[in-house]
Task: structure prediction
Amino acid sequence: MYKTSKELSEAIESIFSNPEEGLLALGAINADIGMQQEQPLSTQIDPLQRVSMFRRKIEDWIELYGLEIQEFDSEYDSLRISSEAKALLLALREIQRCFPDSETAPRK
Amino acid sequence: MMKIKRTSQLVARDVPYIMHPKKAILTLRQRFGVSDHHDFASSHRHEQFKTHSSEFPFVRSSDIEEGRITILQSESQHYAVDSKGTVRSFLPSVLEFKVRHLLGQPRKENIHQEQAYFAEVKALLEDPFPMPLETAKVVEKPKAAQTPTGFVNQYPNGRNASDIDFITEPTLTASQSAQVDELHAWLLSTNINGITKPEVAEYITTRDSLTERVALLESGDWYRGKVHDVLDKKREIADLDYEFARRADQVGLVTVTPILDLAGLGIGSLAKAGISSTIKLGSKKGVSIGTNSTKGTTTIGRESFVPDSNVLNTGGRVIPKWKWGNNPITDAQAAEAYQAIAASKTDVAAIARYMNLNERSVERLYKIKDYLFKGNNDIPGFTPDPAIATAWNRMRSGGSDLAARQRDMTLLKHEVAEMRIKQQNPGINHTEAHRLANERYNWQETVPWEELGF
Result:
């Protein structure tokens, strides 16, 4: 479960009309969804390899957004998808900056 | 499982799990035993429980009675059976012994109370639908080559969203097939206003082979990179279309008169003959080629019909898009919303992304989707329900607060329970299965009135 600082919590509260929406996305609160979820990666795996896996997953998600946007036809969804994708692209940029020696893990 | 918390730190989601003070003291007494403690300041004697927890090593009965400390208790479950039918347990108990005995799995290993182990077991315990205990004979399921989690939809039963065909193609008799062949040949031999026969032939042949390749890729097994390959082929098709449209635009408007009337056949036959019945070309240039199902004419050149912006045109297939944003769906929109959901190839992957679901949950989600929106095997699809369409779209677009997510999960649990009841009781009617599922997961009661659809 993600531990939020006071500042992060306050930021989430100011961004979302209902902060629970942001906290759920972050994984900072548990919704008790009754379905099995992805578990944390083992700390035994090399950190750089974990970064590579992270990059792979985020790139896959961006590709998924690319397909999703074709299935929607509303301004709301277009804005939602492009905003979410942009946030992920920024995260990728920062990952590249922090781990310049990392590469995206190849598709299995 | 029990959790000790300061009352001042309670949050709304704790409320269902708060134990009555008397029951809390009784539970602590049974679990940790009693040790009397004399409070010299107040000359009051308390029961004190040594809990061994780091945050609350000692808990006094007066703390509970006077509301300083609260005991939370989630539902306890002493055993779980995972998807392979293996008994997993977190504490030795008589019940666990009985379950192991029933399944013929005597306890061999020592359980270490490690955090990782508990996380795994906790996930199993949270599973509201563990395998039934009767399934002692376990058939190992072949493992999927790749995980679909976090990526595009993959249907575990081998089916694909592209299987949904909104154009019904008739079964042709031998003479009709011959007519279609003749029609195909006639179309290829026609010199269309400046575009030469070989050009038309090459365009149709190349496009059909590419379309066939895309269909093969889409219906084949999932692999990482599949989406990339499909998009690559679709891009090739788009380039081909654009180039042909450019040529057609140069030669101007031409309407090839009623070829369908000539053959006396419908739009489906044309598609069956290998000729794409709806091919949208170069919309920026306002050109198109295709058949008009109403007029029965084929047009090459400037648009002869206005394409519906709410459908995704995929050459022969018309897939509706979701056009209602995050607004609740009305009764009138429900059927179209169901079509859009059924045709979606990304929704399950998107739900998995927002809810952090693992592979097993994703597979379950596919089954729920098939059951709700497409019908599954002998079970027909249901009458479109606007509240269900609204809930599904909320899940796939990640727009849930805590209450909405729990409500949506109740819907999923209800459907799983209903499916299971039908599986275990062949011949049971839907109303009865629905009533039984409602006894445990009553989703209808949780739906807010504005989502009921009017």
User: Anything to note?
Assistant: The first helix of chain B runs from residue 21 to 32. The first strand of chain B starts at residue 2 and ends at 6. Chain B touches chain A through 59 residues (CB under 8 Å). Chain B is about 45% helix and 10% strand.
